[in-house]
Write a structure and sequence with these properties.
Blueprint (H helix, E strand, L loop, with lengths): L11 H4 L22 H4 L31 E5 L11 H9 L2 E4 L2 H10 L7 E3 L5 H13 L3 E5 L12 H9 L4 E4 L4 H9 L6 E6 L4 H9 L10 E6 L4 H12 L3 E6 L7 E6 L14 E5 L10 H13 L4 H11 L5 H17 L1
Parallel strand pairs: 1-4, 1-5, 2-3, 2-4, 6-7
Antiparallel strand pairs: 7-10, 8-9, 8-10
Amino acid sequence: MSDTPTSPLFDPEERKSGVPAAVAPEDRASEWEDGLPDELRDDCPDGDDAADVGSGAEDGGDFGAGPGGSDGRLWVVATPLGNGADLSPRAREVLQRVDVVLAEDTRRTGLLFKRLGMRARRFVSFHDHNERTRAAGVLRLLADGAEIALVSDAGTPLLSDPGYRLVRACREQGVPVSPVPGPTAPAAALSAAGLPPLPFTFLGFLPRAASEARALLARYGGPGAPPTTLVFFERKDRLAATLELAHAALGPREVCVARELTKVHEEFIVGRLGEAGWLPGELLGELTVVVGPPEEPDAQTREEVLAVAAEERAAGGRPKDVARRVQARVRGWSVKQVYELLRDAQGGRDGR
């Protein structure tokens, strides 16, 4: 794309050829070369494929017994959203030490390793379409003492990426699972959007079917809906239609579209659901959408509250009960505020 940054993570020339030969194995005599379960073997062809990278770092941290030991562990490792400098030293150390890196896209992760000067023992693809079939083989490696890292294409795994079933299976079988925290698009977008950050609800990618997306958004709109900020991912070709759905389901709210987070052309575009003209006609890059909570209506005036109170007094009940009924009918007043208003108003009449 024309907005590809020139950071250590992005090299337009190398995009064309996949992982360069420099990351191909120099020594393929890994203990795991012939020890992969059948479910994982088809990812390890000979040659310069990114699914078969060179031997890892010889030093770096004590991460368990490794091959043949009894201390297998799954590491859930966050990788950069777009700026290679965001990879933590701990993540770098773990990724180069483990026996296998489970990658959503082995070529993309291979490029990340190359551009950051890293080497891995082995990549194996692990994505939405093969997670169920590959989990058993991964669990066998872990049971044999392997150290395995799970990464997504960018950001923190499991947050709208594969891995949940594997982590759950590890927990059920007593296999240790450790996170290596780092970049995550929902938190990054929320932190710089300028909208209320708490509480917030992350929805991942909205359903493709418009009816399903509308039903999901409708849970957060209308009377009784939770006053939460919403964060979700969307594709550029669906964004305009999704924002229209959001307006129909949620009503007018503030919204921020964050694109190309942490990259050279990072941008935060702010506007309001239901208003035209604020969204550019064409957006490039990956998009994270932040929709603000329901907007508090203007508080009703003292006179309006007293008028409602007169009706509720006529219905009878203790003063606190009357205050609760009034509060339920007016905007911008708490029960305590209504009670104090009624008390003061009653005191003024008694003093006349």
